Amino acid sequence: MDLTDYLRVLRKRWRFVTVTTLVGLLAAAAATLLMTPRYEATTQLFVSTQGGEDASALLQGSSFTQQRVKSYSDVVTSPAVLRPVISQLGLETVPVELAERITASAPLDTVLIDVTVTDEAPAVAADIADAVAVSFVSVVTELEQPAGDGPSPVRVSVTREALVPDAPVSPRGPLNLALGLLVGLAAGVGVAVLRELLDTSVRTTEDVAALGVPALGSTLFTPEKEGASVLVAGHTNTPQSEALRQIRTNLQFVDLDHPQKVVVVTSSLPGEGKTTTSVNLALTLAMAGVPTILVEADLRLPKVSEYLGLESAAGLTTVLAGQAELDDVLQPYGTSGLSVLPSGAIPPNPSELLGSRQMAELVADLRGRAEVVVVDSPPLLPVTDAAVLSRHVDGAIVVVRHGRTTRDQLSKALERLGSVDGRVLGGILSMVPAKGAGSPYGYGYGYGYGYGEPLPAPVDEVAGVPSPRAGEREHGVVALDHALAGRHAERD
Hints:
It is a single chain. The chain has about 500 residues and is of the alpha/beta class. It has 3 domains: about 5-35 and about 170-200, no CATH class; about 45-160, no CATH class; about 205-490, P-loop containing nucleotide triphosphate hydrolases (Rossmann fold, 3-Layer(aba) Sandwich), CATH 3.40.50. It has 19 helices and 14 strands. The chain has helices at about 5-10, 15-35, 55-75, 80-90, 95-100, 120-145, 175-200, 205-210, 240-250, 275-285, 305-310, 315-320, 325-330, 350-355, 355-365, 385-390, 405-420, 470-475, 480-490, and strands at about 40-50, 100-105, 110-120, 155-160, 215-220, 260-265, 290-295, 330-335, 340, 370-375, 395-400, 425-435, 460, 465. It has an 8-stranded mixed β-sheet with strand order 5-12-11-6-10-7-9-8, with helices on both faces. Strands 2-3-1-4 form a 4-stranded antiparallel β-sheet. The longest helix has 26 residues, at about 175-200. The chain is rod-shaped, with a radius of gyration of 42 Å.
């Protein structure tokens, strides 16, 4: 990942990073408030030698005391020094526990010893430091006492008594808050980048193209509260309408030398929006003046007829079984130029039926009746219907749901098509968020091209006359809102 990728991740997951940063800051603030303040008091000792009046003796004494000081630092926290302190101050502790609150250090190349005591009470810290200094002087004098009653060659003096501290040394509020902020920010960024690296879902048309599938475009997902999410004739300048027109245009330029008259629309798994895409792509083609036939070939969970409000008792399976002629079951959809072939009765053997010679002959018949035939089929991974059907058509369009379909699932679906020599025309990224980082709709259609207001009356825009089923189909075309997509997306 380069810098641009990191910035994209931060832009996409800025809410998560903000939350983790605030959590780190609040955790640091809570820890700071819950911590008991602790105070430090320090006393300083000076170690010297007695005797020696000439320069040589003084030099030897200085070297002697510097070596002694290194050992004295450990003596400060010894039980011999701390027991008198506990007894003198009446402390309810033992030498081992008291030693944990005392530190002794000797600055390099000096004969000084700094004794620091930490306690929750500032006055107690100062009293302990002074008492330790006095006890240490006595213990060293006794330890250095030569045989007999001669004077000790080492003298320890208190050069600075402990002062009662007026400010605690811990907790350090500003430092803790700064550390909490940095830790929360680092954790948020790290998790966001890790999630991005581990996320194998397809989120952009570039991801689709990276798997060797031409990206035909994307369709919009709009939250329910924002209204209709797909094409409505009275709202012909919505982002969804523009997206479908872009897909229609890109489909026309997939292969100029071999125009695609019959295309099958499928997906990797259920719930990716293939039926919604099939319906609206067919409607978009029809409204552009292209004679179009929409075939409901999902013989397991057919939904096209339900979406369009058409009768599906007789249709594709009826024709394949020789029980009806195509002209008898092909239903015109208003006067938009779209004709729909419903599924008919659901058969027990959909795959065999779609791969039969009768299906191939029906597809050939449909070629002569319209410029484009859109065939809605089942998903590729659960069943083989779409793969079998792809042998009879000019190519397949694979619908990929934004953020849900994984690269592995799409790759396996393409392998299914490739195993039967099915031709993949391209992929459509469906249910792309209208807002947010990476959304192709985030910039809108500016430069003076606004959105038109909804038509006040339920009029079939193509024909200019009232629709025969306006109450069911709203202005003569499908009006699938988010609620409808939510009910049926998992089943299409």
